[in-house]
Design a protein that fits this description.
Length: 438
Protein backbone atom coordinates (compact mmCIF):
# COMPACT_ATOMS: atom_id res chain seq x y z
CA UNK A 1 0.00 0.00 0.00
CA UNK A 2 1.33 3.42 -0.94
CA UNK A 3 2.69 5.73 1.76
CA UNK A 4 0.65 8.88 2.32
CA UNK A 5 2.23 12.30 2.72
CA UNK A 6 2.90 13.80 6.14
CA UNK A 7 0.76 16.84 5.26
CA UNK A 8 -2.34 14.69 4.78
CA UNK A 9 -1.66 12.78 8.01
CA UNK A 10 -1.22 16.00 9.94
CA UNK A 11 -4.52 17.31 8.61
CA UNK A 12 -6.40 14.22 9.71
CA UNK A 13 -4.59 14.22 13.06
CA UNK A 14 -6.54 17.36 13.98
CA UNK A 15 -9.72 15.30 13.96
CA UNK A 16 -8.59 13.62 17.14
CA UNK A 17 -9.15 16.90 18.97
CA UNK A 18 -12.85 16.61 18.21
CA UNK A 19 -13.12 13.45 20.29
CA UNK A 20 -11.68 14.73 23.57
CA UNK A 21 -13.42 13.58 26.74
CA UNK A 22 -14.36 17.00 28.08
CA UNK A 23 -16.63 19.53 26.42
CA UNK A 24 -14.87 22.91 26.22
CA UNK A 25 -16.44 26.13 27.44
CA UNK A 26 -18.92 27.47 24.94
CA UNK A 27 -17.71 30.10 22.55
CA UNK A 28 -19.76 31.97 19.98
CA UNK A 29 -20.62 29.71 17.07
CA UNK A 30 -17.92 29.86 14.41
CA UNK A 31 -19.75 29.99 11.12
CA UNK A 32 -18.27 30.36 7.67
CA UNK A 33 -18.63 33.90 6.30
CA UNK A 34 -20.89 32.74 3.48
CA UNK A 35 -23.32 31.02 5.88
CA UNK A 36 -23.22 33.38 8.89
CA UNK A 37 -26.69 34.77 9.69
CA UNK A 38 -27.24 38.49 9.19
CA UNK A 39 -29.68 38.93 12.10
CA UNK A 40 -28.61 40.90 15.15
CA UNK A 41 -27.22 38.62 17.82
CA UNK A 42 -27.16 39.16 21.58
CA UNK A 43 -25.12 37.05 23.98
CA UNK A 44 -27.21 35.82 26.88
CA UNK A 45 -26.31 33.75 29.89
CA UNK A 46 -28.99 31.59 31.46
CA UNK A 47 -29.45 34.03 34.35
CA UNK A 48 -29.95 36.92 31.92
CA UNK A 49 -32.42 34.90 29.84
CA UNK A 50 -34.43 33.97 32.95
CA UNK A 51 -34.59 37.61 34.06
CA UNK A 52 -35.80 38.71 30.62
CA UNK A 53 -38.39 35.94 30.53
CA UNK A 54 -39.90 36.86 33.88
CA UNK A 55 -40.16 40.51 32.87
CA UNK A 56 -41.56 39.95 29.38
CA UNK A 57 -43.46 36.64 29.40
CA UNK A 58 -47.05 37.25 28.17
CA UNK A 59 -48.24 34.10 29.93
CA UNK A 60 -46.92 35.28 33.28
CA UNK A 61 -48.19 38.82 32.81
CA UNK A 62 -51.67 37.59 31.89
CA UNK A 63 -51.77 35.44 35.00
CA UNK A 64 -50.62 38.30 37.19
CA UNK A 65 -53.33 40.51 35.71
CA UNK A 66 -55.91 38.26 37.39
CA UNK A 67 -54.72 39.47 40.81
CA UNK A 68 -56.77 42.66 40.64
CA UNK A 69 -60.05 40.75 40.23
CA UNK A 70 -59.22 38.28 43.01
CA UNK A 71 -58.16 41.03 45.40
CA UNK A 72 -61.34 42.97 44.61
CA UNK A 73 -63.50 39.94 45.39
CA UNK A 74 -61.63 39.44 48.65
CA UNK A 75 -62.17 43.09 49.59
CA UNK A 76 -65.91 42.87 48.84
CA UNK A 77 -66.24 39.68 50.85
CA UNK A 78 -64.52 41.31 53.81
CA UNK A 79 -67.00 44.20 53.97
CA UNK A 80 -68.97 44.59 57.23
CA UNK A 81 -72.27 44.01 55.39
CA UNK A 82 -72.24 42.30 51.99
CA UNK A 83 -75.53 43.94 50.91
CA UNK A 84 -75.62 47.71 50.81
CA UNK A 85 -78.47 49.54 52.61
CA UNK A 86 -81.22 51.02 50.47
CA UNK A 87 -82.51 54.55 50.87
CA UNK A 88 -85.93 55.47 49.54
CA UNK A 89 -87.62 58.90 49.35
CA UNK A 90 -91.09 59.69 48.08
CA UNK A 91 -93.02 62.92 47.59
CA UNK A 92 -96.80 62.86 47.23
CA UNK A 93 -99.08 65.72 46.14
CA UNK A 94 -102.77 65.15 46.87
CA UNK A 95 -105.85 67.03 45.68
CA UNK A 96 -108.67 66.55 48.26
CA UNK A 97 -112.26 67.76 47.50
CA UNK A 98 -113.73 70.05 50.20
CA UNK A 99 -116.77 72.31 50.73
CA UNK A 100 -114.78 75.31 49.68
CA UNK A 101 -113.29 73.67 46.64
CA UNK A 102 -110.24 71.46 46.05
CA UNK A 103 -107.56 71.32 48.74
CA UNK A 104 -104.00 70.40 47.82
CA UNK A 105 -101.74 68.63 50.24
CA UNK A 106 -98.02 67.87 50.03
CA UNK A 107 -96.87 64.67 51.78
CA UNK A 108 -93.49 63.02 51.91
CA UNK A 109 -91.83 59.89 53.21
CA UNK A 110 -88.30 58.54 53.61
CA UNK A 111 -87.07 55.06 54.43
CA UNK A 112 -83.90 53.07 55.04
CA UNK A 113 -83.73 49.27 54.68
CA UNK A 114 -80.97 46.72 55.17
CA UNK A 115 -80.81 43.07 54.15
CA UNK A 116 -79.12 40.68 56.57
CA UNK A 117 -77.78 37.20 55.72
CA UNK A 118 -78.68 34.70 58.41
CA UNK A 119 -77.11 31.48 57.15
CA UNK A 120 -73.44 32.28 57.82
CA UNK A 121 -72.81 33.40 54.24
CA UNK A 122 -70.29 36.18 55.11
CA UNK A 123 -67.82 33.78 56.74
CA UNK A 124 -68.13 31.28 53.86
CA UNK A 125 -67.67 34.05 51.31
CA UNK A 126 -64.55 35.36 53.06
CA UNK A 127 -63.11 31.85 53.27
CA UNK A 128 -63.81 31.18 49.59
CA UNK A 129 -62.30 34.43 48.30
CA UNK A 130 -59.25 34.23 50.59
CA UNK A 131 -58.51 30.68 49.44
CA UNK A 132 -59.03 31.68 45.79
CA UNK A 133 -56.57 34.57 46.19
CA UNK A 134 -54.01 32.23 47.79
CA UNK A 135 -54.50 29.74 44.97
CA UNK A 136 -53.98 32.45 42.34
CA UNK A 137 -50.73 33.59 43.92
CA UNK A 138 -49.47 30.00 43.98
CA UNK A 139 -50.56 29.56 40.35
CA UNK A 140 -48.55 32.65 39.45
CA UNK A 141 -45.52 31.08 41.13
CA UNK A 142 -46.17 27.86 39.20
CA UNK A 143 -46.46 29.74 35.89
CA UNK A 144 -43.22 31.54 36.71
CA UNK A 145 -41.51 28.19 37.27
CA UNK A 146 -42.84 26.85 33.95
CA UNK A 147 -41.65 29.95 32.12
CA UNK A 148 -38.20 29.65 33.69
CA UNK A 149 -38.03 25.94 32.86
CA UNK A 150 -39.05 26.51 29.25
CA UNK A 151 -36.51 29.28 28.80
CA UNK A 152 -33.79 27.18 30.45
CA UNK A 153 -34.56 24.26 28.12
CA UNK A 154 -34.47 26.47 25.02
CA UNK A 155 -31.28 28.15 26.20
CA UNK A 156 -29.72 24.70 26.64
CA UNK A 157 -30.81 23.68 23.15
CA UNK A 158 -29.23 26.79 21.63
CA UNK A 159 -26.06 26.15 23.61
CA UNK A 160 -25.86 22.55 22.41
CA UNK A 161 -26.51 23.48 18.78
CA UNK A 162 -23.82 26.16 18.95
CA UNK A 163 -21.32 23.54 20.09
CA UNK A 164 -22.55 21.20 17.37
CA UNK A 165 -22.06 24.00 14.82
CA UNK A 166 -18.50 24.57 16.07
CA UNK A 167 -17.77 20.85 15.78
CA UNK A 168 -19.27 20.58 12.30
CA UNK A 169 -17.37 23.68 11.17
CA UNK A 170 -14.07 22.15 12.28
CA UNK A 171 -14.97 18.85 10.64
CA UNK A 172 -15.88 20.57 7.37
CA UNK A 173 -12.57 22.41 7.26
CA UNK A 174 -10.62 19.24 7.91
CA UNK A 175 -12.51 17.15 5.37
CA UNK A 176 -12.21 19.95 2.81
CA UNK A 177 -8.46 20.11 3.40
CA UNK A 178 -8.30 16.33 3.08
CA UNK A 179 -10.24 16.37 -0.19
CA UNK A 180 -7.93 19.05 -1.63
CA UNK A 181 -4.83 17.13 -0.54
CA UNK A 182 -6.11 13.85 -2.00
CA UNK A 183 -7.06 15.55 -5.27
CA UNK A 184 -3.51 16.93 -5.59
CA UNK A 185 -2.04 13.53 -4.85
CA UNK A 186 -4.34 11.96 -7.43
CA UNK A 187 -3.16 14.43 -10.02
CA UNK A 188 0.39 13.48 -9.08
CA UNK A 189 -0.51 9.81 -9.52
CA UNK A 190 -0.10 8.94 -5.82
CA UNK A 191 -3.82 8.32 -5.01
CA UNK A 192 -6.60 6.58 -6.84
CA UNK A 193 -9.85 7.99 -8.13
CA UNK A 194 -11.68 6.02 -5.44
CA UNK A 195 -9.67 7.81 -2.72
CA UNK A 196 -10.49 11.18 -4.29
CA UNK A 197 -14.19 10.36 -4.54
CA UNK A 198 -14.34 9.17 -0.92
CA UNK A 199 -12.64 12.32 0.32
CA UNK A 200 -14.95 14.52 -1.76
CA UNK A 201 -18.07 12.70 -0.52
CA UNK A 202 -16.95 13.06 3.10
CA UNK A 203 -16.42 16.80 2.55
CA UNK A 204 -19.90 17.18 1.05
CA UNK A 205 -21.44 15.19 3.89
CA UNK A 206 -19.73 17.46 6.40
CA UNK A 207 -21.00 20.52 4.53
CA UNK A 208 -24.54 19.13 4.51
CA UNK A 209 -24.34 18.27 8.20
CA UNK A 210 -23.19 21.79 9.03
CA UNK A 211 -26.05 23.28 7.00
CA UNK A 212 -28.59 21.16 8.87
CA UNK A 213 -27.19 22.17 12.25
CA UNK A 214 -27.19 25.83 11.25
CA UNK A 215 -30.85 25.57 10.23
CA UNK A 216 -31.73 23.97 13.56
CA UNK A 217 -29.68 26.59 15.41
CA UNK A 218 -31.46 29.41 13.60
CA UNK A 219 -34.83 27.94 14.53
CA UNK A 220 -33.79 27.42 18.16
CA UNK A 221 -32.55 31.00 18.45
CA UNK A 222 -35.77 32.30 16.96
CA UNK A 223 -37.81 30.28 19.48
CA UNK A 224 -35.71 31.61 22.36
CA UNK A 225 -36.08 35.18 21.08
CA UNK A 226 -39.84 34.70 20.86
CA UNK A 227 -39.98 33.40 24.42
CA UNK A 228 -37.95 36.39 25.64
CA UNK A 229 -40.01 38.86 23.58
CA UNK A 230 -36.89 40.26 21.93
CA UNK A 231 -37.22 42.76 19.05
CA UNK A 232 -37.85 41.24 15.60
CA UNK A 233 -34.64 40.13 13.93
CA UNK A 234 -32.75 39.77 17.21
CA UNK A 235 -31.40 36.24 17.64
CA UNK A 236 -29.73 35.54 21.00
CA UNK A 237 -26.52 33.56 21.37
CA UNK A 238 -26.31 31.38 24.47
CA UNK A 239 -23.28 31.48 26.73
CA UNK A 240 -22.30 28.91 29.33
CA UNK A 241 -21.16 25.31 29.48
CA UNK A 242 -22.86 21.96 29.05
CA UNK A 243 -22.06 19.67 31.95
CA UNK A 244 -23.52 16.72 33.81
CA UNK A 245 -23.87 18.48 37.14
CA UNK A 246 -26.93 18.88 39.33
CA UNK A 247 -27.84 20.04 42.80
CA UNK A 248 -27.28 17.62 45.66
CA UNK A 249 -30.78 16.23 46.05
CA UNK A 250 -32.04 12.70 46.50
CA UNK A 251 -35.11 10.95 45.15
CA UNK A 252 -36.81 11.09 48.56
CA UNK A 253 -36.20 14.84 48.78
CA UNK A 254 -37.65 15.36 45.31
CA UNK A 255 -40.75 13.28 46.09
CA UNK A 256 -41.31 15.26 49.29
CA UNK A 257 -40.87 18.50 47.37
CA UNK A 258 -43.37 17.36 44.74
CA UNK A 259 -46.10 17.20 47.38
CA UNK A 260 -45.41 20.80 48.43
CA UNK A 261 -44.75 22.53 45.14
CA UNK A 262 -46.77 25.62 44.10
CA UNK A 263 -49.12 23.67 41.83
CA UNK A 264 -50.02 21.25 44.64
CA UNK A 265 -50.58 24.16 47.01
CA UNK A 266 -52.71 25.98 44.44
CA UNK A 267 -54.94 22.93 43.92
CA UNK A 268 -55.31 22.51 47.68
CA UNK A 269 -56.34 26.16 48.00
CA UNK A 270 -58.75 25.76 45.07
CA UNK A 271 -60.31 22.79 46.84
CA UNK A 272 -60.72 24.85 50.03
CA UNK A 273 -62.29 27.66 48.03
CA UNK A 274 -64.66 25.28 46.23
CA UNK A 275 -65.74 23.69 49.52
CA UNK A 276 -66.46 27.13 50.99
CA UNK A 277 -68.46 28.12 47.91
CA UNK A 278 -70.53 24.96 48.26
CA UNK A 279 -71.31 25.90 51.86
CA UNK A 280 -72.14 29.41 50.67
CA UNK A 281 -74.58 28.14 48.05
CA UNK A 282 -76.25 25.85 50.55
CA UNK A 283 -76.52 28.68 53.08
CA UNK A 284 -78.19 30.77 50.40
CA UNK A 285 -81.31 28.61 50.78
CA UNK A 286 -81.93 30.38 54.09
CA UNK A 287 -84.04 33.48 53.42
CA UNK A 288 -82.40 36.85 53.96
CA UNK A 289 -84.13 39.17 56.38
CA UNK A 290 -84.73 42.75 55.30
CA UNK A 291 -85.36 45.33 58.02
CA UNK A 292 -86.63 48.79 57.13
CA UNK A 293 -87.41 52.05 58.90
CA UNK A 294 -89.65 54.65 57.22
CA UNK A 295 -90.71 58.13 58.37
CA UNK A 296 -93.18 60.55 56.74
CA UNK A 297 -95.74 63.30 57.07
CA UNK A 298 -99.33 62.90 55.94
CA UNK A 299 -102.68 64.64 56.42
CA UNK A 300 -104.04 68.18 56.17
CA UNK A 301 -101.95 71.08 57.25
CA UNK A 302 -103.93 71.69 60.44
CA UNK A 303 -103.80 68.03 61.45
CA UNK A 304 -100.50 66.87 59.94
CA UNK A 305 -99.48 63.43 61.11
CA UNK A 306 -95.96 62.16 61.57
CA UNK A 307 -95.57 58.48 60.69
CA UNK A 308 -92.82 56.13 61.73
CA UNK A 309 -92.94 52.62 60.25
CA UNK A 310 -90.77 49.60 61.00
CA UNK A 311 -90.88 46.87 58.33
CA UNK A 312 -89.62 43.30 58.30
CA UNK A 313 -89.68 41.21 55.14
CA UNK A 314 -88.65 37.61 54.59
CA UNK A 315 -88.90 35.82 51.23
CA UNK A 316 -90.66 32.46 51.36
CA UNK A 317 -88.36 29.71 49.95
CA UNK A 318 -91.18 27.72 48.44
CA UNK A 319 -90.17 27.22 44.80
CA UNK A 320 -86.60 28.37 44.11
CA UNK A 321 -84.15 26.49 46.36
CA UNK A 322 -80.88 27.46 44.62
CA UNK A 323 -80.49 23.96 43.20
CA UNK A 324 -78.52 25.27 40.21
CA UNK A 325 -75.99 27.11 42.37
CA UNK A 326 -75.54 24.17 44.72
CA UNK A 327 -75.10 21.74 41.83
CA UNK A 328 -72.52 23.95 40.11
CA UNK A 329 -70.56 24.36 43.36
CA UNK A 330 -70.66 20.61 44.01
CA UNK A 331 -69.40 19.93 40.48
CA UNK A 332 -66.56 22.44 40.89
CA UNK A 333 -65.51 20.85 44.18
CA UNK A 334 -65.55 17.34 42.73
CA UNK A 335 -63.52 18.41 39.68
CA UNK A 336 -60.90 20.16 41.82
CA UNK A 337 -60.58 17.11 44.08
CA UNK A 338 -60.09 14.81 41.08
CA UNK A 339 -57.57 17.20 39.52
CA UNK A 340 -55.62 17.47 42.76
CA UNK A 341 -55.45 13.70 43.26
CA UNK A 342 -54.39 13.14 39.64
CA UNK A 343 -51.79 15.92 39.78
CA UNK A 344 -50.29 14.52 42.97
CA UNK A 345 -50.10 11.01 41.50
CA UNK A 346 -48.72 12.23 38.16
CA UNK A 347 -46.11 14.45 39.84
CA UNK A 348 -44.68 11.59 41.87
CA UNK A 349 -44.71 9.29 38.84
CA UNK A 350 -42.97 11.93 36.70
CA UNK A 351 -40.32 12.52 39.36
CA UNK A 352 -39.56 8.80 39.61
CA UNK A 353 -39.41 8.38 35.83
CA UNK A 354 -37.25 11.45 35.23
CA UNK A 355 -34.95 10.47 38.09
CA UNK A 356 -34.31 7.10 36.45
CA UNK A 357 -33.70 8.77 33.08
CA UNK A 358 -31.29 11.26 34.66
CA UNK A 359 -29.32 8.43 36.29
CA UNK A 360 -29.15 6.61 32.94
CA UNK A 361 -27.88 9.74 31.19
CA UNK A 362 -25.25 10.24 33.88
CA UNK A 363 -23.97 6.71 33.27
CA UNK A 364 -23.99 7.22 29.51
CA UNK A 365 -22.09 10.50 29.73
CA UNK A 366 -19.56 8.98 32.13
CA UNK A 367 -18.95 6.07 29.74
CA UNK A 368 -18.48 8.46 26.83
CA UNK A 369 -16.08 10.70 28.73
CA UNK A 370 -14.08 8.00 30.50
CA UNK A 371 -14.08 5.10 28.04
CA UNK A 372 -15.35 5.78 24.53
CA UNK A 373 -13.78 9.14 23.71
CA UNK A 374 -10.29 8.37 25.08
CA UNK A 375 -10.29 5.05 23.22
CA UNK A 376 -11.32 6.76 19.98
CA UNK A 377 -8.66 9.43 20.45
CA UNK A 378 -6.10 6.66 20.93
CA UNK A 379 -7.40 4.90 17.81
CA UNK A 380 -7.04 8.16 15.91
CA UNK A 381 -3.39 8.45 16.86
CA UNK A 382 -2.68 4.79 16.08
CA UNK A 383 -4.50 4.91 12.73
CA UNK A 384 -2.52 7.93 11.59
CA UNK A 385 0.74 6.22 12.50
CA UNK A 386 -0.41 3.09 10.67
CA UNK A 387 -1.43 5.15 7.66
CA UNK A 388 1.95 6.88 7.59
CA UNK A 389 3.60 3.48 7.74
CA UNK A 390 1.50 2.29 4.82
CA UNK A 391 -0.38 -0.31 6.87
CA UNK A 392 -3.85 1.17 6.28
CA UNK A 393 -5.33 3.33 3.58
CA UNK A 394 -7.30 6.55 3.44
CA UNK A 395 -10.65 4.78 3.74
CA UNK A 396 -9.75 3.18 7.08
CA UNK A 397 -8.39 6.48 8.36
CA UNK A 398 -11.59 8.33 7.44
CA UNK A 399 -13.67 5.67 9.21
CA UNK A 400 -11.73 6.21 12.44
CA UNK A 401 -12.03 9.98 12.07
CA UNK A 402 -15.74 9.66 11.45
CA UNK A 403 -16.12 7.59 14.63
CA UNK A 404 -14.37 10.27 16.65
CA UNK A 405 -16.64 12.92 15.20
CA UNK A 406 -19.75 10.84 15.90
CA UNK A 407 -18.63 10.29 19.49
CA UNK A 408 -18.24 14.04 19.96
CA UNK A 409 -21.75 14.53 18.61
CA UNK A 410 -23.08 11.82 20.91
CA UNK A 411 -21.51 13.54 23.92
CA UNK A 412 -23.00 16.94 23.07
CA UNK A 413 -26.44 15.39 22.49
CA UNK A 414 -26.21 13.42 25.72
CA UNK A 415 -25.26 16.53 27.70
CA UNK A 416 -28.15 18.45 26.13
CA UNK A 417 -30.56 15.61 26.99
CA UNK A 418 -29.16 15.55 30.51
CA UNK A 419 -29.80 19.24 31.07
CA UNK A 420 -33.31 19.02 29.57
CA UNK A 421 -34.11 16.06 31.81
CA UNK A 422 -32.71 17.81 34.87
CA UNK A 423 -34.82 20.89 34.16
CA UNK A 424 -37.95 18.76 33.70
CA UNK A 425 -37.18 16.82 36.89
CA UNK A 426 -36.77 19.93 39.00
CA UNK A 427 -39.92 21.42 37.51
CA UNK A 428 -41.96 18.28 38.22
CA UNK A 429 -40.63 18.14 41.79
CA UNK A 430 -41.01 21.85 42.45
CA UNK A 431 -37.33 22.02 43.30
CA UNK A 432 -35.87 25.56 43.44
CA UNK A 433 -34.34 26.46 40.10
CA UNK A 434 -32.52 29.65 41.09
CA UNK A 435 -28.80 29.16 40.80
CA UNK A 436 -28.96 25.99 38.68
CA UNK A 437 -27.22 26.74 35.42
CA UNK A 438 -26.00 24.44 32.67
Amino acid sequence: MRTKSLALAGSLLCLSNIGQAQVPAQKPGVLPPETAPTQAQQRLSLAEALALAEAASPTLRLKMAELSAAEGQRADAGAWLYNNPQLSVDQTRRSVPSTTGSERRSEWGAGLSQTFEVGGQPSYRREATSAALTALRLEIADVRRHVRAEVAERHTRVLALQQRADTETQALKLFDDTAVAVQRRRQAGEDTRLDANVARVEAERARNQLAQIQEQLLEARAELAKQLQLPPGSLPMATGELSAQRAGYSLDALLASADNQPRAGALAARETSAAARLKLERASTYPDVTVGLNVGREGPGAARERLTTLTLSVPLPLFKRNSAGIGAAQTELTQVQIERQAAQRDARASVSSLWARLASLEDRIRRLQESVLPALADNQQLSIKSQQAGQIGLLELIVVSRQSLDARRDLIDALADYQSTRIALELAAGWPQEGTQP
